[in-house]
Amino acid sequence: MRNVQELTWLLLLVLTPRTKGGLSRPGKPTLTSCRSPEKETFTCWWQPASDGGLPTTYALYYRKENSEIMYECPDYFTGGENSCFFNKNNTSIWVNYNITVVATNRLGSTFSDSVDVDVVYIVQPNPPENVSLSVMEDKGWPFLRVAWAPPRKADTRSGWITLIYELRIRSEGENEWETHVAGQQKLFNIFSLRSGGLYLVQVRCKPDHGFWSDWSSPSQIRFPEYFHQEKSAWIVTTAVCAFIFLIITWLLHMNHGSLKHCLLPPVPGPKIKGFDEQLLKKGKSEDIFNALVVSDFPMSWSSSSNSEDLLVELLEVYIPEERENMLGASKDLGGGSFKLESSTSDSDSGRGSCDSRTLLIEKCGRPKEHEDSAEERVEREDWEDARVDTGGRTWPSVFPGLPDRPQRSLSDGLSQVLGPSEGQVCKQIKARSDINIAVSGHKESPARWSVEYVGVQTVVNDDMVILQPWGSREGCTPLHSLQERDYSQVKQVGSDDTLLLLQKVSEGTADGREAGNMSQKSATCMNSTTATGGYVDAAAAFPMTTY
Amino acid sequence: LGRCCGSCSLMYMVAVCSGVPIGDLLERAAQHSDKLYSLSTTLTHDLDSHFPPMGRMIMPRPSACHTSSLQTPGDKEQALQVSESELLSLARSLLQAWADPLVVLSSSANTLPHPAQSKIINKIHELQEHSKNLGDGLNIISGKMDPTAQTISSLPYRGGNDVGQDKLSKLIKFQFLLSCFRRDSHKIDSFLKVLRCRAAKTQPHLC
User: Fold this and answer.
1) Which domains does chain A carry?
2) pTM for the full predicted model
3) Which residues fall in a coiled-coil region (chain A) (predicted)?
4) What was the ipTM of the complex prediction?
5) Domain span including residue B176
6) Which residues in chain A are contacts of B37 at CB distance < 8 A?
7) Which residue, among A491, A498, A488, A502, has the nearest Cα to A529 in the 3D structure?
8) CB of B201 within 8 Å of any CB in chain A?
9) Do A155 and B76 touch (CB under 8 A)?
């Protein structure tokens, strides 16, 4: 059928008269496009070629897919020049239109290439209409609402055509558009616009299966000034920040000194007691060390006797607070607490040096040998044996801990006794001799820790005390539980420097005799110490370790 | 219940007798038909890119499609006069008519002399998948409408089980079948979208 038609056109072409005197048949027109805005009507446009120098008319013929009849365009005017408009009655969908344009002048006709068109494939809607811009407000923050209507011709209500929308916005003076896809909805909210800016908005639409429409004509809106809200917030923030800054600055200024001290603490100066910086600057090292030593304390000893006597200087004379409290309350408990007290101070070297039997025998015992009774002399022989046994191990344990405790207790005890009591007082000064357990390996029983007590009878003058063993005078309240121990009695005041003590031996045990012997010596030590002024400083004790 | 589950399988019965609104079902069906049309459009464009010019001359007219005998509305006026159940019946009939040709296309796609062969094979498989899903969905929807929706016009495909022997005839047959399918899927999509808007009168923002 189609071939027959083409043949007919061909015959027509052949029969067309040829050019005469520069005039010719019209050139071949071209069908440029067909478009349906709403799937109900459509329009086709063509491009004419040369008219051949003669008045030329154009005609559009179409034939529907399932029909042999050829029709001419029903409307050449609605679509404008060189176009053909197909109204609703002439438009079918899902049907191919075979369309041809014929240009005709006096010399003949020229046919365009035919085009097959199905209206459903050429749908391109008109732009959306009634685009409106409005400024809305949400919790004090404005936003732009863009609303529009679908193109008037498009029947979206029945579902015959389904449109989706897209919009774009730009501020005046910018070239870049910002595009938003709105989907099927017909309004869109735009947030975060510049305060006071002038904006242009355009909308376009596309059918579910088709082509994008042109952009709608730009709508314009000036976004309101909402900066005052922002500005006030900024002002408040700035003011608060400035206030805080001022306060911090002021605080820093006020605390300049302490802050400096905190960040850059001063270098600590020398803290050696008695250290004279001026002497150090003069560079006399001997004077410096002399200054560290308590004045002439070690010198007097070294002059009068052997240097090892230094080790025997420490006599512990003190009244523990517990003891004082216990005296009136419970005698048994008092005794117990004493045992506990003495056992805790085991390896005290200051006391140990005084208590050391070897030392006592060698340095203190010898001068008074003639006054000792026969029993004691026998006992000393035993002692000599003990010294041989243990001598090598005695001294290492003497020095390691040379703490301040013996000195403190000595001074405390003396100050208590010699200060306010003045003779009538019946407090007891306990000349206690602790025997270092570590020294004598052959006596391991805790009972060896003999404790001896003497009472102060009178204070003769500032330098001397007369001791009385307690329990022997009715003026003092004795501790009966402690009478099992050995106590010394003042035998006589030998000279300014010595106090002779008599041991009052109740039982003939080795412990008692040893203790008595030692207490005798201890009293001597104490007296000597008090005679020199009574106070022994830690600094004075320090040089002893060098011997 | 008897009417509603008369001709459906057990699976449909569950869906049909449950309370899913028909508007939602049609919305879902329209999404499927939309996808179906989009796939067929890209497929025809893929084939067009390597279609010999001579093929266009030889290719049969669209009136030769095996579904062209089915009377369908030719414009908006006609379409809007057709009842819902009738529109659904048309959509189901068209979909049903493409079950066999799609099998032919799918089985012969691997012999298609085309550079984008594997791409075309995948798309045809996808087409079959969507077509089957949509058919199932339309069966459920038809169960909720009056009996007219149940009637399916028989449109047998008589094109044979192969697409020809030589290169050109294969390409022409493929292109022809796909152009027919494209139009029919557009019809199905249009009918379902009209149905969707009629069912969604309570949601005017959609239509």
Assistant:
1) 30-121 (2.60.40.10), 129-228 (2.60.40.10)
2) 0.56
3) none
4) 0.87
5) 24-206
6) 209
7) A498
8) no
9) yes
